[in-house]
Specification:
Rossmann fold, alpha/beta, elongated, 2 domains
Length: 409
C-alpha cells in the first residue's frame, strides 16, 4: 500500500477481530493490527496462550489503542466470545498455525479464539503459516479442505524464506498489506460488482523512437491501479491492462502488461468479450513516430525532426467490439476548454461516463497521490468532486458505475 495509510472505505468504522496464534510469524500480526487501525477499523486482538510467548499484549494495545482480549476462562470474560462474535464485521486469524487449523476444522471451542469462530456469522479469514513440510502434510491439507467447505476463506500461505535454517518454500505468512486487502474484500460483502468482470487500463504507453528511446508521458498509473484495487475489493474479477509503471499491482487482479498504444488496443479487445465494465484510465499516447529506427540514433546523426502520426485510438477501436450492456468509462486530461472537450469525447466515443482531469489544477493529474475530477454522464450531468486521494476518487467513481450496472444474467 503506497503512501501513508488513512481511514477509508471499506475499513473505516468497521470492527475486525484479529486472532493471533503461536507461530514465529506472529510478529507480522503487529504490522497487520497497525495497518487496519490506521485505515479506520476498530481492531480487537485475541491472542492464544502460545501467541503470548511470541508477542506480548502490550504491543497490540499500543498499536490499536484497545485492550487485548483475555482468555475465555479469565474472570469477566465468560461471554466475551459471544460479544466479540456478534460485533465483528470480519474475523481474521493471522498467523493460523497447523495446530489451530486442526482445532478449527474439528470444531473445537477450548479457547477464546476457537469459541469466537463457532459463535460468529461474520466472514472468517484464516492465514496459514508453518513449515513447508507441515503445510504439505495430508492431514493439514485435509483440514484446509474442510475449512473451505465450511465457508472459511484461506489466504495464503505464500512462498518465501521460512524460519532460520529452513530455507524457502510454501508456508510463509502472506504479507500484512496483502491480508489487509483480503480483509477489505470480506468487509465489502456482496456488491453489484460481485461476480462481474471489470477491465481497467492504467499507466502510460511508450512509442519507440529507436531501440532505447521512446515518446511517453508523466502518468504513474496510480489512478488506474486504485480503481482496479477497489473493483477487486468489491468482488469483481479484474483485468488490469497496464503500461509501464513502477507500482506494485493491486492484490488479486489479473495483470496484462503492454508498452505501446497498439498493444493496449489489442489487449483491450481481447478482454472485452467477457467484460461487464471497461474503465479506460490509461494515458494513451496520441502520437507515435512514423518509423522507429532499427538502431540507436547517434548524436551526430540526430534528425532535424521526428515525423509523427496518430497512435491507435484505443477507446474508439472498441466501439464495434463492446458486448451488450457494457458500462464504459473514459478519462480526459485537459489543459483548456476542459468541460467542452470532455463532453465532446464522451459523445464521440460512446461513453457512459467520463472523468475529467484539469492538468493545471494543483494536486491533480500525473505523479501525485491526489486528484480533483469532474464526472460527466451521457444525460448531461456533471459532478465535481473535491480534492481527495486517488483511492477515494476510485471509490466515488465505482459508486456511479454500480448504479449503471444492470441485473446479473
Amino acid at each position: 500500500m503506497p503512501g501513508a495509510l488513512a481511514p477509508r472505505r471499506p475499513w473505516e468504522g468497521r470492527r475486525v477481530v484479529l486472532g493471533v496464534t503461536g507461530g514465529i510469524a506472529a510478529y507480522k500480526a503487529a504490522q497487520l493490527a497497525r495497518d487496519l487501525t490506521e485505515l479506520g477499523a476498530s481492531v480487537d486482538v485475541v491472542l492464544t496462550r502460545a501467541a503470548r510467548e511470541f508477542v506480548g499484549p502490550i504491543t497490540f494495545e499500543a498499536l490499536t489503542g484497545r485492550p487485548v482480549v483475555g482468555d475465555i476462562l479469565d474472570p469477566g470474560h465468560a461471554l466475551g466470545h459471544i460479544r466479540l462474535a456478534r460485533e465483528a464485521d470480519v474475523v481474521c486469524v493471522a498467523p493460523a498455525t497447523a495446530d489451530f487449523l486442526a482445532r478449527a476444522a474439528a470444531g473445537r471451542a477450548d479457547d477464546m479464539l476457537t469459541a469466537i469462530l463457532l459463535a460468529t456469522t461474520a466472514p472468517v479469514l484464516l492465514c496459514p503459516a508453518m513449515n513447508d513440510r507441515m503445510w504439505a502434510h495430508p492431514q493439514t491439507r485435509a483440514n484446509v479442505r474442510r475449512l473451505r467447505r465450511l465457508g472459511y476463506r484461506i489466504v495464503g500461505p505464500a512462498e518465501g524464506r521460512l524460519a532460520y535454517g529452513e530455507g524457502s518454500g510454501p508456508g510463509r505468512l502472506e504479507e500484512p498489506a496483502t491480508i489487509v486487502e483480503h480483509v477489505g474484500r470480506a468487509l465489502a460483502g456482496e456488491t453489484p460488482f460481485t461476480g462481474r468482470t471489470v477491465v481497467v487500463t492504467a499507466g502510460p504507453t511508450r512509442e519507440p523512437v529507436d531501440p532505447v528511446r521512446f515518446l511517453s508521458n508523466r502518468s504513474s498509473g496510480r489512478m488506474g491501479y486504485a480503481i482496479a484495487g477497489s473493483a477487486w475489493r468489491r468482488g469483481a474479477r479484474v483485468i488490469l491492462i497496464t503500461g509501464p509503471s513502477a507500482l506494485e499491482p493491486p492484490v488479486g487482479v489479473d495483470v496484462v502488461r503492454v508498452e505501446t498504444a497498439e498493444e493496449m488496443a489489442n489487449a483491450v479487445r481481447g478482454a472485452l468479450p467477457t467484460a461487464d465494465v471497461l474503465i479506460m484510465a490509461a494515458a494513451v499516447a496520441d502520437f507515435r513516430p512514423v518509423r522507429a529506427a532499427e538502431r540507436k540514433i547517434k548524436r551526430k546523426e540526430a534528425p532535424g525532426a521526428i515525423a509523427l502520426e496518430p497512435a491507435p485510438d484505443v477507446l474508439r477501436s472498441t466501439l464495434d467490439a463492446r458486448p451488450a450492456g457494457l458500462v464504459t468509462v473514459g478519462f480526459a486530461l485537459e489543459t483548456h476548454d476542459a468541460l467542452s472537450n470532455a463532453r465532446a469525447k464522451l459523445e464521440a466515443k460512446g461513453l457512459d461516463l467520463i472523468v475529467l482531469n484539469d492538468a493545471t489544477e494543483p494536486g491533480a493529474g500525473f505523479e501525485v497521490e491526489t486528484n480533483r475530477v469532474v464526472i460527466l454522464d451521457r444525460s448531461g450531468g456533471e459532478e465535481a468532486l473535491p480534492l481527495m486521494s486517488k483511492h477515494d476518487v476510485a471509490e466515488a467513481l465505482l459508486d456511479r458505475v454500480a448504479a449503471l450496472l444492470g441485473p446479473r444474467p
